[in-house]
């Protein structure tokens, strides 16, 4: 029987800010996208809440308005994804000392298979878990905490880590896991999303113990009986990215072609920089614009013979497609580059390739958008955001 461990950093983004700024420690804070002043209205969204804010009922996904109603003293802090990812790399470095088999599940979660390595420790998996907790505090900061779950499957290990927060350590064994989990809410199970939760709630089922008394579809029954035995997916099991993209929802309506194209240029700059960083280019260019209701929707695409990673080339091609059938009044834009390939010649013009290389070197040293196109002057730059699910794990962590 395997021994799987799930390490889950507690209130990760918020705790990282509290670690970096002692003034924020012990105070309710909410992490938001962008600058503090921009999304402070009803439309702003809390992407992470501190332990203190959660005690007032503030949750991830709450609007800023809702959060202030529940917790008037909440402090809004703009997100800093570079900071969080730097801490994630430290976490991975710590846990990699305890197992060669690791699945990086998201920016703040990882699974370890300690079936064999636990034999090295007198206290087995418990000793490993306690050491990891201690090293996280020493190497990541005294304010950083994690909850760890131990069991014999991924699903049970993840559930165990959720049962004691913050700073918990829970074991679910084959002899008692059904009893210990009978009062767990069905929506807490990884794999039971909104549709399946609705299906169960419509039948008067809210806890796992209740669900186990019903005849359910196999795909739901396996989850409520916690039978999933999915294997860990290590970086070596992953494939290179099939596409690279960036979406952004504006804080206010963009109702002119020039403002829309400026946003698109910004998104393309970030997407193309990521392609060059990965040593890749793409053949299929895709732009989607989401206007307000009843104004239609804009989809623009261009497929090339050879892959490109030059932002000016990508922008010129997509902007021409856009101007053939422009839409205005948009709130959301997305750029996606697919049909990727390695070892791409950056440009047919040698001088242009040298310029891009210098730009990349400057931005790598000082941060993306230290050097950027003059066409983006005169407005606020949209900075890169890294999602918590780390869709580019193969590139970030592969050998």
UniProtKB/TrEMBL annotation:
One GO CC annotation: cytosol
GO biological process assignments: DNA repair; error-prone translesion synthesis; SOS response
Highest taxon listed in the record's lineage: Bacteria
UniProt xrefs under SUPFAM superfamilies: DNA/RNA polymerases, Lesion bypass DNA polymerase (Y-family), little finger domain
Domain UmuC residues, every copy: 4-193
Molecular function (Gene Ontology), one example: damaged DNA binding
InterPro entries cross-referenced by the UniProt entry: DNA/RNA_pol_sf, DNA_pol_Y-fam_lit_finger_sf, DNA_pol_Y-fam_little_finger, DNA_polymerase-Y, DNApol_IV, Rev_trsase/Diguanyl_cyclase, UmuC
Pfam families for the chain: IMS, IMS_C
Gene3D superfamilies noted in UniProt: 3.30.70.270, 3.40.1170.60, DNA polymerase, Y-family, little finger domain
Family of this protein: Belongs to the DNA polymerase type-Y family.
The protein, known as: Polymerase IV protein
Organism encoding this protein: Candidatus Amesbacteria bacterium GW2011_GWA2_42_12
């Amino acid at each position: 029987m395997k021994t799987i461990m799930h390490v889950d950093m507690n209130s990760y983004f918020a705790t990282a800010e509290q670690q970096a700024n002692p003034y924020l420690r012990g105070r309710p804070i909410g992490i938001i996208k962008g600058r503090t002043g921009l999304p402070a209205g009803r439309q702003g969204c809390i992407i992470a809440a501190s332990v203190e804010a959660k005690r007032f009922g503030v949750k991830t996904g709450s609007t800023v308005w809702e959060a202030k109603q529940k917790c008037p003293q909440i402090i809004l802090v703009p997100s800093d994804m570079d900071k969080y990812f730097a801490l994630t790399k430290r976490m991975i470095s710590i846990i990699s000392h305890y197992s060669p088999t690791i699945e990086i599940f998201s920016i703040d979660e990882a699974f370890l298979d300690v079936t064999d390595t636990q034999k090295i420790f007198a206290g087995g998996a418990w000793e490993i878990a306690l050491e990891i907790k201690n090293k996280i505090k020493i190497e990541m900061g005294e304010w950083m905490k994690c909850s760890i779950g131990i069991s014999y499957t991924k699903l049970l290990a993840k559930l165990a880590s959720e049962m004691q927060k913050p700073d918990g350590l829970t074991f679910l064994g084959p002899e008692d896991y059904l009893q210990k989990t009978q009062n767990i809410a069905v929506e807490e199970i990884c794999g039971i999303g909104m549709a399946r939760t609705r299906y169960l709630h419509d039948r008067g089922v809210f806890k796992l113990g209740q669900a186990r008394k019903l005849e359910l579809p196999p795909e739901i029954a396996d989850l409520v009986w916690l039978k999933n035995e999915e294997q860990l997916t290590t970086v070596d099991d992953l494939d290179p990215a099939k596409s690279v993209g960036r979406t952004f929802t504006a804080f206010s309506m963009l109702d002119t072609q020039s403002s829309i194209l400026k946003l698109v240029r910004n998104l393309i700059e970030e997407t193309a920089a990521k392609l060059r960083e990965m040593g890749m280019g793409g053949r299929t260019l895709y732009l989607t614009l989401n206007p307000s209701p009843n104004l239609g929707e804009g989809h623009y695409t261009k497929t090339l013979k050879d892959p490109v990673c030059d932002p000016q080339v990508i922008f010129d091609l997509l902007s021409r497609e856009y101007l053939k059938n422009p839409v205005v009044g948009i709130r959301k834009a997305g750029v996606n580059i697919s049909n990727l390939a390695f070892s791409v010649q950056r440009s047919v013009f040698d001088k242009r390739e040298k310029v891009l290389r210098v730009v990349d070197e400057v931005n790598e040293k000082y941060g993306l958008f230290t050097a950027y196109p003059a066409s983006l002057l005169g407005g606020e730059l949209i900075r890169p955001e890294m999602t918590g699910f780390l869709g580019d794990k193969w590139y970030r962590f592969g050998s």
